[in-house]
Design brief:
With 527 residues, this protein is an alpha/beta fold. The protein has four domains: 126 residues, Rossmann fold, CATH 3.40.50; 178 residues, NAD(P)-binding Rossmann-like Domain (Rossmann fold), CATH 3.40.50; 130 residues, 60s Ribosomal Protein L30, Chain: A (2-Layer Sandwich); 75 residues, 2-Layer Sandwich (Alpha-Beta Plaits), CATH 3.30.70.260. 34% of the residues lie in helices and 23% in strands. The longest helix is centred in the middle third of the chain and has 22 residues.
Length: 527
């Protein structure tokens, strides 16, 4: 079997391939798209970092390809849908660069506090300046946005530096944060209290432009911002304005909207913004770690059929996968849906199976549900079919699984109950004949609804005219209804609607719906 390494990989990883029995490795970097398309047909495995773009055209040419391995976390340079359709497993290495990225964030914080880059530049020019006055980090408040692997490490380092650490993570309960010695707060409070703010969330639709002009306006004029996560989370124009107008004291960036950073980017002209060229994972140790990890994972798959850290395939045999596929798909959609219906720090996820699925190996189904649930917050690529249980455990989320023989009108169901520090929500799904997937229960309401890309969940009083007004608002805002499904407890009581729509409703539309009399809540769900 042949493996192509198309981006620079540490020699330790290449050596593992060379020593693996029955595997031939070819290192060929810097290829154009056309050269890669011409080269790829004979290979079983492909190792990439961020430079190689694995598009649908490349995958079409990859006649023998079985696995793509990304030496790193992000897989946005891989067409995952095209890979899935071709049956190509895509793996990443989410563990290899966590320490080094966390250390880089701390390094930027220290450099910014003592103006080390500015002092270095002046001294190189021959100036001996004592005017560069810094600040201590001792007893300052560090605000950590995102308590995942990297954010948690940064938080612990901050505590070790005698800082007060506060954090925001919609996914973490206050009790779990307290066990780490961290105070969990809302974002607005973090912006107002923190002396240093460090960002450790993935870039998703929810986190794009997370910090902009409004957020900078909440911060102390002495606050300093660090971003080693992803470009686009911090609005660059708003940051430049905030620093120039002294709304905040400075910033330190390792990531940018466009990389490499264009020569004419105005960030380069602001003295109190220090920058590094995406060096978060650039240590000898990290590069060796991800190279060894991805080589080992690909070798295990090609030699033994074992799948680890896959972002698009569960780790089960082909025969079992065929039986479980509809339940895996249902679980993923249920997890993704209910994650958008809950608020507050997650304490517990309870999953109950009934029908045929209760007699099968349910582990990949449970993992699929967790992955669907967690990736809404963590983003694509970070949570996969292997690490989802660990991802939940790290955040103090209790996960329980059970089966039931309780008889209902629906057979082959998956029920998920999520408990947060603010609420408890329930969502049931069912696999019908011909593997048709349906939602069959929301909280205490029995309902049969299709799962679609865009769904509106609306709770309201069961009164005449409410549904008509909802439909009128959607029509006025050009949101086409594909299906409407209703459930209620009793006539005149509480009711729930699941409305399948062809496009995402805007915030303005949602606010109009929420403003209707007798409407309790409105939530837009995207799958």
């Amino acid at each position: 079997m042949k493996v192509l390494v198309s981006d620079k990989l540490a020699p330790e990883g290449v050596k593992l391939f060379e020593e693996a029995e029955g595997i031939e490795v070819v290192v060929k970097t810097g290829m154009t798209k056309e050269e890669l398309i011409a080269e790829i047909p004979s290979y079983d495995g492909l190792v990439i970092r961020s430079a190689t773009k694995v598009t649908a055209d490349v995958l079409d040419a990859a006649k023998n390809l079985k696995v793509i391995g990304r030496a790193g976390i992000g897989v946005d340079n891989v067409d995952l849908e095209a890979a899935g359709k071709k049956g190509v497993v895509v793996m990443n290495t989410p563990e290899g660069n966590t320490i080094t990225t966390a250390e880089h964030a701390i390094s930027l914080m220290m450099s910014m506090a003592r103006k080390i880059p500015q002092a270095h530049a002046l001294l190189k020019k021959g100036e001996w300046s004592k005017k560069l006055m810094g600040v201590e980090i001792y007893n300052k408040t560090l605000g950590v946005i995102g308590l995942g692997k990297i954010g948690s490490i940064v938080a612990r380092r901050g505590l070790g530096l005698s800082m007060k650490v506060i954090a925001y993570d919609p996914f973490v309960s206050a009790e779990y944060a307290q066990t780490m010695g961290i105070e969990l707060v809302e974002l607005e409070e973090l912006y107002k209290r923190a002396d240093f703010i460090t960002v450790h969330v993935p870039k998703t639709e929810k986190t794009a432009n997370l910090i902009g002009e409004k957020e900078f306006g909440m911060m102390k004029p002495t606050a300093r911002l660090i971003n080693c996560a992803r470009g686009g989370i911090v609005n660059e124009a708003a940051l430049i304005k905030a620093v120039k107008e002294k709304k905040i004291a400075g910033a330190a960036l390792d990531v940018y909207d466009k990389e490499p950073l264009p020569e004419d980017n105005p960030l380069r002209e602001v003295d109190d913004i220090i920058m590094t060229p995406h060096l978060g994972a650039s240590t000898d140790e990290a590069q060796v770690n991800v190279a060894i990890d991805i080589a080992g994972q690909i070798i295990d798959m090609l030699q033994n059929g074992q799948i680890r850290n896959s972002v698009n395939a569960p780790s089960v045999s082909a025969d079992m996968l065929k039986k479980l596929r509809p339940y895996i798909d249902l679980a993923d959609k249920l997890g993704c849906t209910i994650s958008q219906l809950v608020e507050g720090g997650i304490k517990e996820i309870n999953i109950t199976y009934s029908g045929d699925i209760a007699k099968l190996d349910r582990r990949p189904v449970t993992v699929s549900l967790l992955k669907g649930f967690l990736q809404v917050f963590a983003g694509e690529g970070l949570v996969n079919m292997v690490n989802a249980p660990y991802f939940a455990k790290e955040r103090g989320i209790k996960v329980t699984e059970s089966t039931t023989s309780e008889v209902t009108e629906f057979k082959n169901t998956i029920s998920v109950v999520v408990t947060t520090d603010k609420m408890t929500r329930r969502l049931d799904g069912c696999v019908f004949l011909d593997n048709v997937l349906r939602i069959v229960r929301v909280d205490d309401y029995w309902i049969e609804a299709s799962l679609s890309e865009y769904m509106l969940f609306i709770s309201n009083k069961d009164l005449t005219g409410v549904i008509g007004k909802i439909g009128g608002i959607l029509g006025d805002n050009k949101v086409n209804i594909a299906g409407m499904h209703l459930g209620r407890d009793f006539a005149g009581g509480e009711a729930i609607s699941i409305i399948n729509v062809d496009s995402e409703a805007t915030e303005k539309t949602l606010e109009s719906l929420k403003a209707l009399p007798y409407v309790n809540y409105v939530t837009m769900v995207k799958l």
